[in-house]
């Protein structure tokens, strides 16, 4: 890029920031009557539509983005998983003799284990660093730009301070068109805790100064699920977790993952692996609180039911446990069996619910007489 083109780029970015600097959220966008600000329904619907459309055309959109982004000889680093990403990062860091890095708290950095990686490489955190890890919220397919939220031009300054810039973004974080940037930005402003006051539409200028990583890390598994894939529209605002009655009790620890709460219940079995994470789709009470506060209207409750149906159909639940449940159901729905003596019922149930099944569960205490017998007795007493 020539000096004059570079200068024009700086001017353009600055004017975009200036234009948006004092922009406040459109009052109709936010309903403050609720504890958790809820976006105006039409605007929510519109953004959900934009994101869903971008997702449905993801293959095409990624190609479009690549064409535009790489037009000046730039390259995209496609990473299948975090091993892929970290090994490429390692070679960049070694080649460029990086000693310090600047980064923020970000779910994607946590997901790929960036902080641990940097510690192992003995790369220290610094505000003025050799490498800046800068959060880009989304890619814009038809222009090849990166959309970066900014606060007081801090990201703008970093992008232009002469250090190496590294962007890590999920393969699903993409919108088709620049025309939808305003809708996306307004939603980000409404849900943001950080008080952004502008955004940058960034397109790198030198290939050895900016590195873009687009990470899959299980997302394509989710894309293959025709119904569940809408969960990839998640903006990671964390609102659903705040209103979830189960999450309020168990917190994030049991998930042992960066994705937690209601949206974690949907995506984790696909982002990780079904066997290790299918159980999270069963912790939900299906109250639907999460759907009411989601800024992009993800039908979380329905998706959890979809997951359960899918696991069942594909025998994705433990076969031994499944047969235990079936035997248990057969027993408790048989009046003849339930009317047997307490000792006999106990014995039979213990046999049905194998030792392995009872390892983590206590046997439910049984009534001395079955409810059927109790009912008959109460009727007899009444008629006396
Ligand atoms: S599912 Fe919706 S409410 Fe939950 S984190 Fe994602 S965008 Fe926020």
Verbal overview:
The structure is a single chain. This protein has 384 residues and is an alpha/beta fold. The chain folds into 3 domains: 215 residues, Rossmann fold (3-Layer(aba) Sandwich), CATH 3.40.50; 81 residues, no CATH class; 49 residues, no CATH class. The chain is built from 20 helices and 12 strands. The strands form 3 sheets. It has a 6-stranded parallel beta sheet. The protein has a 4-stranded mixed beta sheet with strand order 10-7-8-11. Strand 1 and strand 2 form a beta hairpin. Helix 12 packs parallel to helix 15. The longest helix has 19 residues. About 5% of the residues have low confidence. Bound molecules: iron/sulfur cluster (SF4).
**CATH homologous superfamily of the largest domain - what is it?**
NagB/RpiA/CoA transferase-like
Largest sheet: 6 strands, parallel
Number of helical elements: 20
Small molecules bound in the structure, each named once = iron/sulfur cluster
Mean pLDDT: 84
Radius of gyration: 27 Å
Number of distinct beta strands: 12
CATH topology of the largest domain: Rossmann fold
Based on helices, strands and strand pairing, what is the structural class?
Answer: alpha/beta
Task: Based on the coordinates given, report the CATH architecture of the largest domain.
Answer: 3-Layer(aba) Sandwich
Poorly predicted spans = 5-10, 23-36
**Kindly, what is the distance between the CA atoms of the first and last residues, rounded to a whole number of angstroms?**
100 Å
What is the highest CATH level, the class of the largest domain?
Answer: Alpha Beta
Strand order of the largest sheet: 3-12-9-6-4-5
What share of the residues lie within helices?
Answer: 40-55%
Count of folded domains: 3
Percent in strands: 5-15%
């Amino acid at each position: 890029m020539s000096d004059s083109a570079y200068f024009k780029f700086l001017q353009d970015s600055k004017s975009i920031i200036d234009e948006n600097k004092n922009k406040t959220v459109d009052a109709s966008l936010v309903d403050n009557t609720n504890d958790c600000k809820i976006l105006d329904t039409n605007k929510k619907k519109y953004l959900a539509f934009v994101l869903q459309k971008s997702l449905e055309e993801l293959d095409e959109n990624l190609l479009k983005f690549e064409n535009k982004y790489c037009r000046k000889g730039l390259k995209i680093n496609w990473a299948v998983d975090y091993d892929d990403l970290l090994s490429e990062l390692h070679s960049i860091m070694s080649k460029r003799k990086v000693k310090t890095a600047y980064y923020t708290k970000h779910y994607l950095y946590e997901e790929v284990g960036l902080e641990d990686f940097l510690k192992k490489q003995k790369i220290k955190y610094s505000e003025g660093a050799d490498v800046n890890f800068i959060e880009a919220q989304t890619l814009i397919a038809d222009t090849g730009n990166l959309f970066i939220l900014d606060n007081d031009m801090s990201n703008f300054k970093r992008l232009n301070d002469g250090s190496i810039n590294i962007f890590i973004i999920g393969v699903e974080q993409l919108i088709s068109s620049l025309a939808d940037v305003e809708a996306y930005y307004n939603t980000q402003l409404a849900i943001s805790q950080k008080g952004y006051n502008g955004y940058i539409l960034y397109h790198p200028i030198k290939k050895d100064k900016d590195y873009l990583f687009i990470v899959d890390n299980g997302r394509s598994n989710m894309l293959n699920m025709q119904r569940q894939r809408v969960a990839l529209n998640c903006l990671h605002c964390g609102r659903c977790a705040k209103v979830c009655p189960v999450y309020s009790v168990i917190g994030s620890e049991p998930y042992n993952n960066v994705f937690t709460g209601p949206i974690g219940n949907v995506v984790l079995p696909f982002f990780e692996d079904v066997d290790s994470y299918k159980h999270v789709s069963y912790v939900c009470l299906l109250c639907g609180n999460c759907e009411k506060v989601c800024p992009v209207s993800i039908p979380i409750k329905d998706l959890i039911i979809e997951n359960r149906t899918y696991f069942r159909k594909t025998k994705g639940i433990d076969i031994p446990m499944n047969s235990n449940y079936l035997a248990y159901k057969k027993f408790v729905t048989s009046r003849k069996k339930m009317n047997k003596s307490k000792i006999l019922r106990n014995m039979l149930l213990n046999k049905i619910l194998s030792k392995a099944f009872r390892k983590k569960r206590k046997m439910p205490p049984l009534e001395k007489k079955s409810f059927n017998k109790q009912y008959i007795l109460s009727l007899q007493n009444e008629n006396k």
